[in-house]
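Morning!

This is the sequence you dropped in the shared folder:
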Amino acid sequence: MSTAQTASGAKNGEAWRNWAGNVTSRPVREVTPASVDELSAAVRKAAEDGLKVKAVGTGHSFTAAAATDGVLIRPQLLTGIRNIDRDNMTVTVEAGTPLKRLNMALAREGLSLTNMGDIMEQTVSGATSTGTHGTGRDSASIAAQIRGVELVTASGELLTCSAKENPEVFAAARIGLGALGIITALTFAVEPVFLLTAREEPMSFDKVTADFDELYAENEHFEFYWFPHTGNCNTKRNNRSAGPEAPVSRISGFVDDEVLSNGLFQVVNSLGRAVPATIPTIAKISSKALSARTYTDVPYKVFTSPRRVRFVEMEYAVPRAALVETLRELKSMVDRSKLRVSFPVEVRTAPADDITLSTASARDSAYIAVHMYKGTPYQRYFTAAEQIFTAHEGRPHWGKVHTRDAAYFAQAYPRFGEFTELRDRLDPDRLFGNAYLRRVLGD
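The structure's back. Tokens below.
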């Protein structure tokens, strides 16, 4: 059976760390299976040895969803497109495939996902299992585009599910938190590749909140960033276009996406961490650094951006109708406090979906994400923000920092009991359990 080091450089018995560095675990051993049969054997062996087993992708979750002191499964050899079905417009992809590689491979085939998140470093299984999403008026999260799931259960058996085959598993496993089994492959709905025109421009906080309903209704994909300690926002509107392609120029892309959004942003955040009193001034400068621009390109080049500055993040989904009030309360809290926040607050939307534990399950949702630069104390800020989010029936992103537990989720999700009953059936001995799942799902 194949073994390999993790992305953090950890070997068997050594510490594993997530991307942000805020979660560490020390698995007894790591396994990098090269086939579904090897993965099934690894699950059976873990059970025989009395060890828990968890799969981990690129570690982009800020929670300990994948942490284990048992067997850590690395799916990096389970990659690539398994099948393209042009009649049904679906693609089946191995679980360890990074979204970046999937997006580029689909583009070469003249295909695309309908919607995607901002970061594409994650594996497809890791991204979907925690509910990764972009922004969309009509198109939902990556998991909502899944048409089939293949996973290894606690018994080591391979289970396939879809809307017609094992539908109760399909309803839950698209965002399964790693609690129901280890995903080996996913089938996504795709469509012919299309063009998006992106319009990015600054806008005041007062205007974007006053006009939010209109901006949301008029654009297929609308999002914005508010810079704390200022009244300034940057907005982005993505809409389908007949073309022609008009991509960001190499020089403009380098200046905006690499120098300003990554290089200079890294420098100013390091300065803010060292001298917090400078942050309000830095925020005013940062909020005006990026100029307005319009460009047209294939979807993954519009939806996604390079993100090299490391941070810790909390994100909550609130009912879309409650967004503006929630955001205004967040701004008021920051303005009144002595907090110093150097990262912008990100706001996106998603339509209701039918996934059991999706943050948009059965309700149109808006997402508010707060961030702090890596190494900066974040607890006071996140605690205050979380109090505001939960007062508005917020549902935290499963892969981002939060303090909620099973009792909270039983109230927040009408179908929470369906998920836990399914878990009792598929993993009664909690082979895939860990401390995070014990907190959020109960035991």
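Headline: Confidence is low (pLDDT under 50) at residues 1-10.

More detail when I'm at my desk.
O.
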